[in-house]
DNA sequence: ATGGAGGGTTGACCCAGCGTCAAGGTCAAG
DNA sequence: CTTGACCTTGACGCTGGGTCAACCCTCCAT
């Protein structure tokens, strides 16, 4: 006959755990010797080892009890199920490992690959890290709100970058971003933007861009929040008869002065 | 700006978890809008995703906090450590899978391989499952109490099985085991055992078997508890001047009648 | 016989990491 | 104005034990 600590040591568990299993009725209370010590037999060893094997597999103790007290068919089914869980868990941990490896480096975890690629393209154009971070944060906000649209939006952005004027536009964002309000480059930026807008309108953007009003408002407000000076540029363009940002519109002369809806 | 559920959904956690992270100071409380709702920015998204990546790797939240607020060197060290843990955990789960596969089948989990092999050898000799189970339970008890000795004991048992008389002895245990006290086979068993004992003594077993008294007592009492009828056989042998079981002794004529120590 | 080590006994409280109500206040749409 | 989907705080529950605390048993050496 075994004492509780002999039993526990052989099965690789603590004495406390064995007593816990008694308390919840998972392992039957054995007989006691005349001094009150529990005395275990081989059946207890076998049952305890079965308990541990299942518990190590992550099975809740209540389920362990069901399984051990069930027929062989149900038991086999249960074990199948547990093994499936184990395989999934192993795959999850392997995935976690690869995510962990990317933890230190960059924005890869917070953004879909398409956006990461887009930001890398901007870097390739010489855009400064300061501005890249602003863009990144804006894209994080957009991706968080409309994850299903993000890939198609980024695809449009890539198309836009095929236009040399767009490349020129991004070329402004290489150094410090806090331009004073009278910085002459602001007018240059507005000029480039106006050319882009004209071309966009000519290309038929007026017809509709496939996005609904809410999403356009989201894009506009996010970009306005993220890019310092964007308001200044928008003000200049408004004087010239343009409205919008994500969705470009020529403002009819009689409506000049109408505000954008508040972000 | 994001609401808490947008943030949570994007990071793949529950709203409740985000609030929990606020409560323990892991994720800073963001600003509120005029109605008291929390409003999150991109930095919160990034931090929350980092938190989840580490937490998914099994890192306690307190440790996550330390890591995220530490310098890059300490962070890299910590990630190394976590990855080591992950690899170990994956190996542990794979091991659990193979143990799980053996759960339904046999005694493999409760006994070392050497004993399993020994029991298989007994089966090969035609010993009945009823008796095998008794042996198995006895070996479980012995292995639980003196795991470091089990392999050498089993090795001795294997040697003993090379003796044809020992094979003959086990040959008795094929069917029912509850022999009546006057079953003639009991005398036959005693005869075979006596021949074995004589040969053992001649072979020099008297010199000492390398086991201490406590262990011999353990073997004796375990086998006596497990095998019905063993006491009868021992009684017959005692009349013939033998004592012991695990350790065989010729009892000098003047001490005939001396009892074995109580188990 | 006695004292100390090293078992054993019960009981009660404590932990992470949230899940799950409960009991409301807010917001957008119809 | 209502409805339904959010948001807020707060409190309790859960698993699988760990960690005292306070005491009893047994064995061994002295």
UniProtKB/TrEMBL annotation, chains A, B:
Highest taxon of source: Bacteria
Keyword ATP-binding tagged: no
InterPro entries associated with the record: DNA-bd_dom_put_sf, MerR-type_HTH_dom, MerR_fam
Record-linked Gene3D superfamilies: 1.10.1660.10
GO molecular function, one term: DNA-binding transcription factor activity
The keyword DNA-binding is assigned to this record: yes
Entry keyword set: DNA-binding
Domain HTH merR-type: start-end pairs: 1-70
Protein name per the record: MerR family transcriptional regulator
């Amino acid at each position: 006959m075994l004492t509780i600590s002999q039993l526990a040591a052989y099965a690789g568990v603590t004495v406390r755990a064995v007593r816990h299993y008694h308390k919840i009725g998972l392992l039957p209370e054995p007989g006691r010797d005349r001094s009150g010590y529990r005395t275990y037999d081989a059946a207890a060893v076998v049952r305890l080892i079965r308990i541990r094997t299942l518990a190590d597999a992550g099975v809740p103790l209540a389920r362990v009890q069901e399984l051990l007290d069930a027929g062989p068919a149900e038991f086999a089914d249960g074990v199948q199920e547990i093994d499936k869980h184990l395989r999934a868990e192993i795959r999850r941990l392997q995935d976690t490992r690869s995510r962990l490896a990317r933890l230190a480096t960059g924005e890869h975890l917070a953004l879909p690959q398409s956006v990461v690629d887009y930001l890398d393209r901007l870097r390739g154009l010489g855009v400064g890290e300061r501005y890249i971070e602003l863009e990144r944060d804006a894209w994080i906000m957009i991706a968080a709100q409309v994850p299903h649209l993000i890939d198609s939006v980024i695809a449009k952005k890539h198309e836009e970058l095929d236009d040399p004027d767009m490349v020129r536009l991004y070329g402004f964002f290489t150094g410090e971003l806090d331009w004073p309000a009278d910085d002459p480059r602001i007018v240059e930026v507005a000029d480039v933007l106006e050319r882009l807008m004209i071309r966009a309108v000519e290309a038929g953007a007026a017809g509709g861009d496939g996005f609904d009003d809410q999403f356009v408002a989201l894009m506009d407000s996010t970009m306005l929040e993220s890019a310092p000076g964007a308001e200044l540029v928008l003000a200049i363009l408004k004087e010239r008869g343009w409205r919008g940002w994500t969705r470009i519109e020529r403002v009819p002369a009689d409506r000049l002065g109408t505000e954008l809806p508040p972000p």
